[in-house]
Amino acid sequence: MPGSATRFAGLLSGALLSAGCAGDDGKQITASSATGGSSSSTSGAATTKGSTSDASTTSATTGSPSTSGATTGNTGTSGTGACSGCECDIWAQDCPDGEKCTAWADDGGTGWKANKCVPVSPDPKQAGEACVAEGSAFSGLDDCDKGLMCWNVDENYVGYCIEFCMGDPDSIFCSDPDSICYNDSSGVIPLCLPSCDLLLQDCPGDTDVCLPIGDHAVCVFDGSGPEPSVDGDPCEYDTACGPGLFCADADLVPDCQAQGCCSSFCDLNKPNTCPLMDQSAECVPLFEMGMAPAGMENVGFCGLP
Strands (DSSP E) along 120-205, which ranges? Predict the structure, then answer.
């Protein structure tokens, strides 16, 4: 039986964030270590959510990638007084009073590639509250408070406020002990993502799915599109299968004719109810013997033994 790191056909970092992450133990791990170091990447055309153009960008919208309403960035430091558009330090939040440091697409594209100062809304929304992005999900303009950004934005530019990681790149943490800090390769968009239960799929948002990354299970974008996937459907990346499933290596799923195919999570302590059990699928361990993270010892997936 291959190790858990080789069971993922896609590259979660491409669909989510693309570098280090840290849990409550403060350890840094890489997204590639959670996916077997696959060199594959997600295709922007393959999904309506969580698409990315390269390994250092992240998308969070199902709406138009238009950048109308975005502020043009200016090179410089925040200093004193108004500095909207100036470059800034996302960790230090070093913008002038009344402004915040956030992430934006400085090239007008659909991925966060730089940081800039923007005005804080007069009536700012707090973590977990509904928010509205201005112009596009990548403009950097929204009504979330300092230290937050509008995340998982839909076609109406409505999302919810999520917290940036705090500390510095070498010592990162989240104010919510149930969140895990995930950081992109450039440090542009370090975010505190909710932890979750793989079997319960208990993410707070309707557009999130619970997937394992390293020693943690976190809520990420549901990239499955409008039609729900089922076991055996072809997939190219981890978020392509929808809630309760992930993209497993082809040789682990019965009659899989693609790079990977969707497979359901299952409880090792319960009877076999795998959808493809008539094709010899059964609930097999997601992690190698003795290697399962605390609380995930009974997590399996529907695959070939």
Answer: 130-132, 148-151, 158-163, 166-168, 171-173, 179-182, 191-194
| 256-262 mean pLDDT | 94
Tell me: do 105 and 176 sit in the same domain: no
Q: State how far the Cα of 127 lies from the Cα of 288, in Å rounded to an integer.
A: 36
Residue with tokens 């309506």: 48
Q: Which residues pair with 104 in a beta bridge?
A: 114
3-state class of 191 per DSSP?
A: strand
One domain, residues 175 and 225 = yes
Instruction: Give the tens place of pLDDT for each residue, 18-35.
Output: 222 333 333 222 232 222
Query: What is the span of the domain harbouring residue 210?
Result: 1-41+171-305
| End residue of a domain, out of 112, 145, 164 | 164
Q: Specify the pLDDT at position 67.
A: 32
* Range of lowest pLDDT (52-66, 106-120, 176-190, 208-222): 52-66
Domain's final residue, options 164, 180, 215: 164
Number of domains in the chain: 2
What is the rounded (10 degree) CA torsion for 79, 85, 90, 93?
40
| DSSP 8-state symbol, 46 | S
Q: Determine the Cα–Cα distance for residues 166 and 3; give it in Å rounded to an integer.
A: 33
pLDDT band at 109 (very low <50, low <70, confident <90, very high): confident
Q: 184 with 111: CB under 8 angstroms? A: no
Cα separation, 159 vs 164, in Å, equals 15
Is residue 137 classed as helix, strand or coil in its secondary structure?
Answer: coil
Report the candidate in 58, 235, 21 with the shortest Cα–Cα distance to residue 50. Answer: 58
Nearest CA-CA partner of 60 in 112, 20, 134: 112
Shared-domain flag, residues 181 and 224: yes
Domain check: are 33 and 70 in the same one?
Answer: no
**Model pTM above 0.70:** no
Q: Is residue 50 part of a domain?
A: no
